Amino acid sequence: MGGELEQRERMSQAPVFLVGGSDLFRRGLKGFLEATPFEPVGEFTKYQGCVAAAGNGPAPALIVYVSSGVIEETASAVDALLGAYDGARLLLLSSAMSVEELGACLRMGARGYLLNTISKDALIHSLALIALGETVFPSDLAYALMSGGDALVRTAESPKLPELTLREVDILLCLTEGMANKQIARRLGIREATVKIHVKSLIGKLGVANRTQAALWGVRAGIGGRSNSVA
Questions:
Q1: Cβ-contact 109, 82 below 8 angstroms
Q2: How far is the CA of 213 from the CAs of 142, 167, 207, 228, in angstroms?
Q3: In this model, does residue 86 exceed pLDDT 80?
Q4: Is-contact 196 168, C-beta < 8 A?
Q5: Is the pTM of this model over 0.85?
Q6: How far is CA 229 from CA 10, 51, 150, in A?
Q7: Which pLDDT score, from 0 to 100, does residue 221 have?
Q8: How far apart are CA 38 and CA 12, in angstroms?
Q9: Which one-letter DSSP state was computed for residue 52?
Q10: Maximum Cα–Cα distance for the chain, whole Å?
């Protein structure tokens, strides 16, 4: 109970740094965050300026970093930002997604990776999940990671797929194997009640009626029978 209270307090007191991108884009992000638990308290054009400011003002709980589009630079930025602000969680926004950039950012400790065309509601939901300790990125990239496929690039014109957490991807994989909640709980080392919550969330995100349809969705997406771990 104490842990849940601490998590809720973290989300309700979540100062945010906005780093990278254009002035106009950051202004739009600030508009998205108005009247939400996520208050922008720092804004930086370059990640180096944000790193240099560490210790000279409020520390962020969350950092939203806008990718430059250069994988090496983005990975360096994520590493430097999280090194400068210990305990902060970072969401990366990219104009076009690839497995290579996602993999590099996850290795550096990023907790989210999404298109910068994300809607306001999706952004707030994603930040809430990240504040509570989840990792969030598009499910099509998760499938590419699990299959060991080549770079998968996704643009704003690509079909929209649901954004699943790592845990939801794990559970979807279990569902494609026909596992019951008790079996899923045993495999993943979590409580059966927690599995039920994740299954309900997964069904809602996929827009299906039940767990059987969710499993069929997973099989059609080409992930049935694969390993149950993304990491």
A1: yes
A2: 20, 18, 9, 19
A3: yes
A4: no
A5: no
A6: 28, 33, 18
A7: 59
A8: 8
A9: H
A10: 53
Go through the domains of the chain in sequence order and give each one's CATH number.
Answer: 2-161 (3.40.50.2300), 167-220 (1.10.10.10)
One-letter amino acid identity for 122?
A: A
Here the tokens at position 11 are: 């989300």
With 60 as the cut, is the pLDDT of residue 99 above it?
Answer: yes
> Best-predicted range by mean pLDDT among 6-10, 98-102, 135-139, 195-199?
195-199
pLDDT confidence of residue 220: 65
Higher pLDDT, 123 or 165: 123
What separation in angstroms does the CA of 151 have from each of 52, 98, 102, 121, 142?
Answer: 33, 5, 10, 28, 12
Helix (H, G, I), strand (E, B) or coil at 40: strand
Look at residue 50 in the predicted model and tell me its pLDDT.
Answer: 97
Q: Which two tokens stand for residue 113?
A: 């990776």
Contact 203, 211 (CB under 8 A): yes
d(CA 106, CA 97): 13
DSSP string for 132-152:
TT--EEEHHHHHHHHHT-S--
Q: Which helix (H) or strand (E) covers residue 29, if one does?
A: helix 23-33
Closest to 224 (Cα-Cα) out of 172, 162, 183: 172
